[in-house]
Amino acid sequence: MNDLYPQISASLFQTLPILVLIVAGIGVLVADVLLPRASRWLLSWLSLLGVALAFIALDFVVGPAGREALPLHSYFGVLRSNYLVFLAQNVILAAGAFVILISPRYVGERRIPLGEYYGLLLLAVMAMLALAASTELLTVFLNLELLSITLYVLTGIENRNLRSGEAAFKYFLLGSFAAAFLLLGIAFVFGATGETRYDAIRQVLVDGTAQPRLLAIGFCLMLVGFGFKLSLAPFHMYAPDVYEGAPTTTASLIATGTKVAGFAALFHLIELAAAWSDAAGGLWLALYAVALASMIVGNVGAVVQPNIKRMLAYSSIAHSGYTIVPMVVMLQRPDLIADARDAVAYYMLAYTVMTLLAFGVPAVLGPAGESRIAQYAGLHRRSPMLAFVMALAMVSLMGIPPTIGFFGKFQLFAVAVQGDHIWLAVLGVLASVASVYYYLRVIVTMYMEEPATAGEELESRRLDGVNAFALTACSVCVFLFVVFQSLYLFGV
Hints:
Elements: H1 4-14, H2 16-34, H3 42-62, E1 72-74, E2 79-81, H4 83-109, H5 114-133, H6 137-155, H7 162-193, H8 198-207, H9 212-229, H10 239-245, H11 248-255, H12 257-273, H13 282-303, H14 308-323, H15 325-332, H16 337-365, H17 379-382, H18 384-398, H19 404-418, H20 422-434, H21 436-448, H22 465-483, H23 485-489
Antiparallel strand pairs: 1-2
Helix pairs in contact: 2-3, 2-5, 3-4, 3-5, 4-5, 4-11, 4-12, 4-16, 5-6, 5-12, 6-7, 7-9, 7-10, 9-12, 9-13, 10-11, 10-14, 11-16, 12-16, 13-14, 13-15, 13-20, 14-16, 15-16, 15-19, 16-18, 16-19, 16-22, 18-21, 18-22, 19-20
């Protein structure tokens, strides 16, 4: 028994950021009960303090694992801290901080219960951190479901809005199907290998003692489960309705932090599958088809969307397709795993920064800014800063240099070219070029069109200091991590 104490102590140390967020989430719920109604505005600052302490714990107490260092395992091998996990967790915490900063006015105008909102938000960020660090199949499932439950509630938390309730129901229903596929896939992988820990499964794959048919079915079913959770085509059906019906702050977290955590977990799974020589067959073809379908469906679907949030939902589907391009490559070229990891890590940052900006503007503008793109007509005269921020987000999402979006996509497609998947890179570039139409439509509407009627004109919105700080900081990052790319990728 005494031998367990050092392991438990090391595990608590490695998972300190997660523990900090658990305490912060529970603390916010308790504070909501104890604080008088007039002082509940303090809950947003308590939430921000919790995220800041988690940042400090992650970056200065736990510290990064080096790029080539062996992963540090926690809780007897079910969680780990490695290079990709460290970067993903930093991005998740930054997304959580941004959402908290833009939330006070938004939740106040919609009379969303503050304690439940901020408490669930912190617990959702905690689940994202744990999911990104998961290195055992059952832990992946449990963390993914914990994250999903918090997001179901956050999606339907605006109880006076019927669309919010409808979105939460659709999200829950299809999320349950996804959980079933994922759990069934885990059962097949366990049946094929007799293990659930990644390092033990890897050893079975290297030894060649796994049941190949069961393993192939298991990996494909898990890919379906992740496809639902990450809104990859053809498992994306719920995404536009959920993004439109959910509070915009919740939608921004679903579109960014959830995907960063999910892609980190999926990368570790694909990295595991790359150790299996037979994975170059059916699993590679399935992942290739999902990547291609996501890029096509996402961009084609976004073209015809009149609603800004639905357009961003289809856009996120396309960007999910771009993100798994390096994973397709590394299934056939395990020697490129390090390059694929760098590309995925950098694009997770790029996508998060761009998407937070794109959702931040509708959140600040209010209900009218969450509806039709046509209502953005003439925005540059009434709210010049908001128009500039939205235009910057659109330009970066297009992949126009010198923004972070261009360099992020460049790294993704460079890995495809390096791995001799020229056609996949070409198709990705063509899909990205096609996206210029609907992103440019938003810019043209804001700067070159006038409202068709006076009733369609967005009201002028004065930016408060907190919203202005959040949008400005995120805008600076669009260029900061282009100039100092090594600060993110290699500075750790």
